[in-house]
Amino acid sequence: MKSIDVFCHLMPQKYAELAMNESPNKSHMFVRALKMQAMSDMEYRLNVLKQFPGYKQIPNIVSPPVELFAGPDKSPKIAAIGNDEIKKITEEHPDYYDGFIAGIPFNNTSASVEEIKRCKAMGAKGVQIYTHMNGEAIDQEKFWPIYEICEKLELPVLIHPVGGQTSPEYPTEDCSKYELWFLIGWPYQTTVAMCRLAFAGIFEDFPNLKIVTHHVGAMIPMLEGRIENGLKMYGGRTAPELKEKLTRTKLKGHPIDTFKKFYADSASFGSASAIRCGIDFFGKDHILFASDMPFDPEKGPGYIDRTLKAIDSLALSEEEKKAILFGNAERIFHV
């Protein structure tokens, strides 16, 4: 059966070189990406994709986000070059790619809006943002024009976690130990971003916006009981004098219904139980196949293979399987 991978990554060489020239610390993330053959060697990558009949990708450029290393004066140009490069890569091999996901200079809202328009005209299928903008919450209304144009142009917004070893778990420490920033920090970042957007009224203001969350919706499916029942007492845990400041929300109706408006991908590193939990929470029409390729230990094919096998193991109906593997992607990404 065919499949469309909606959350996978690559790193165009030209973009990486330009980005590292702008990055004051020659970002470790760029160096790591360039050393991963399936990330930067496009011929090697194609050989990986050929191992999976019927499999296609809608890739994005791997983190770090452009706003992390370039100010608002330079980030628009760098983001545009990245989008031009990923467009070239995907256009050269239409048998393996169904378009691309655009990156934007999130620290420059007006430039982001213009880049989204340009990328839509170039054939972009969605827009990638991150769970925070250099520490700033992404639910601020100064970013609303970005969500507004994505809704208008029918471009799904993909949210990727961000944060590294300098984000400690304990406020008295300087760094995160044991790579917990990745293991639990990234799911937490995604969960926080989803909650903030939900309570800020993202779906009230933009009811037709599609938001795709990485790694099966992070912690949200496991928090169903807390969202559905715990939030029936919303505001009761906040000091009265702080209630207006800390709990005022645009969210209408039951919070659980709003959280189910998000989409989630299947990138669970091969955990069938995580995917099952996501399906049970979001429903079959809001789960999209994704692998997080090529971060697997096998250097490319591992997460694709494990995720496909995990979905196969769930004893889904033919209708459910088709929806998750390609039908939902065709519908919301217009491929």
UniProtKB/TrEMBL annotation:
Any single GO BP term: secondary metabolic process
GO MF annotation terms: carboxy-lyase activity; hydrolase activity
Keywords: Hydrolase, Lyase
Single GO cellular component term: cytoplasm
InterPro entries attached to this UniProt entry: ACMSD, Amidohydro-rel, Metal_Hydrolase
Gene3D superfamilies: Metal-dependent hydrolases
Hydrolase among keywords: yes
Domain of life, source organism: Bacteria
Every Amidohydrolase-related domain range: 71-334
UniProt name for this protein: Amidohydrolase
The organism of origin for this protein: Enterocloster bolteae
